[in-house]
Amino acid sequence: MKRILLLGGITEALAIARTLDPQHVYSLAGIGRVPTDLKCQVRVGGFGGAEGLAAYLLAHNIDLLIDATHPYAARISANAARAAQLTGVPCWALRRPAWQAQAGDDWREVADWAELIDALRPFQRPLFTLGREPLQHLQEIPAHQFWTLRALEACPGNERCEVIGARGPFHLDDERALFERRQIDVLISKNSGSGATEPKLEIARQRRVPVLILKRPELPPVDREFFSPSELLADLP
Question: DSSP string of 114-145?
Fold first, then answer.
């Protein structure tokens, strides 16, 4: 098999990494837990943009670049596609399918933070599941709102925001209890497509709570796209 550099960031990437032999490299940005039980090499940290990634590909004799980063990691995906162009190394991408609204859902897509805040004005008890981004805006919380923010790690909030540290997979009963305890009247989410975090959407549907969905970014074209780990693994050289 050719030497692979796998850019991780989602659960499916780890599933691919678990199949790789020692000559391959699994790269993580350094956010979240770093696995210690893999046969392949594990690299943590950035590359220095597209040019830095291109230099790494050439210096380490990488034959295939796999982008299995988060659907919202648009900059990393752009750097991967550009590095592949600069070096001639093929780039494959694992693109997780988006969630689709179901009967009873009240989803409202927003393009960016400004549009999100405008759509949030009528509500009082929002639950943010966007990661750490809302932490930059704690001083902007309107007087009529109290925010609940869920991120991978607990960190300080303020008098108008509580931050919960929690990692998926999440379960229906726990999500239902969270919505009830916090009196959540609107959910804010990325459309990550992850089964591990999907139960929050089911509870929002059951409780008729609107969901503000941050629009997915456009991702660059690559040599090949896959929509499941099994599909990609079946085609590895």
Answer: HHHHHHHTT-SSEEEES-SGGGGGGGG--TT-
